[in-house]
Write a structure and sequence with these properties.
Structural class: mainly alpha
Distance between the termini: 35 Å
Strand order of the largest sheet: 1-2
Largest sheet: 2 strands, antiparallel
Number of helices: 6
Shape: rod-shaped
Length: about 260
């Protein structure tokens, strides 16, 4: 029984040593990992979370400002291009005001209408209404000038219409304000993004440090098992136990023999 107890004690101690070595190896591995995050060892995770959330909000705001700036810049460019195109396509500025050309157009239309009525008439004919002689040739000459006046009035009226459109577009552009400084908006957005990325990375490292530190703190060394008070190895104890067992078996067999 002493040898059996001794074998059990040796086995328990060997199991303890294995657990102890595993504990020490795991502890050393965690300490090695922890050393990689020493730069965030003193960080307050909750405070860092608030700081990171504020940085994210600032970045989102800057990104939204940049996106809005892109839309505004595009609208500003589109409107400016429209104004330039309209200016380049406008007829020459008329010498008189719009009312003058309205009257010119009305008078010219009336002359052309009368001329058209006598287009196929003889050179000397009478007016069907007043029965006076009509100078058809003079009327045709007047009609030619009237048609030129109609063309001139049409160009003038087109100018006044385009001028009104131009004034409206220029007022819209003025109300829109100056074009946004896209270079500055992009710079601010990039800075805010870098700040957020930096804090986000720092927060992840701080949380990783806390997680490893907690695992290391929760680790417990195995309960010590005293080393048996023998210099014999387990194999030696087992060999001696087998030898004693075999000896006892032989003694029992001899005891059963009847000697003469």
């Amino acid at each position: 029984h002493q040898l059996i107890d001794m074998a059990e004690a040796i086995n328990k101690h060997r199991a303890y040593i294995a657990r102890l070595e595993e504990y020490e190896a795991d502890s050393e591995e965690l300490r090695t990992q922890l050393a990689k995050y020493e730069d965030v060892a003193d960080c307050n995770v909750k405070a860092l979370e608030k700081e990171c959330a504020a940085a994210e909000s600032a970045f989102n705001e800057a990104a939204a400002d940049y996106d809005n700036g892109v839309s505004l810049a595009d609208a500003h460019t589109e409107l400016s291009d429209a104004i330039t195109a309209l200016r380049e396509s406008m007829p020459v500025k008329p010498k008189h005001d719009q009312e003058h050309y309205v009257e010119m157009r009305a008078f010219a239309k009336a002359i052309v209408k009368v001329a058209d009525e006598f287009e196929d008439a003889d050179r000397n004919c009478k007016c069907p209404t007043c029965f006076q002689n009509v100078d058809v040739e003079s009327l045709k000459n007047g009609a030619r000038k009237a048609r030129k006046d109609l063309s001139l009035a049409a160009d003038a009226m087109r100018y006044f219409k385009m001028a009104a459109e131009l004034e409206e577009l220029e007022a819209e552009l003025e109300n829109m304000g100056d074009a946004p400084n896209m270079k500055e908006l992009k710079k601010v957005a990039r800075v805010r993004e870098q700040e957020y990325d930096g804090l986000s990375s720092k927060l992840k490292r701080a949380k990783r440090y806390v997680s490893i530190a907690e695992r290391l703190s929760d680790m417990k060394a195995p309960k010590e098992v005293p080393k048996p008070a023998t210099k014999m190895t387990l194999k030696q104890v087992q060999a001696r136990s087998r030898a004693l067992y075999e000896l006892n078996t032989l003694r029992k067999q001899f005891a059963k023999l009847k000697l003469p």
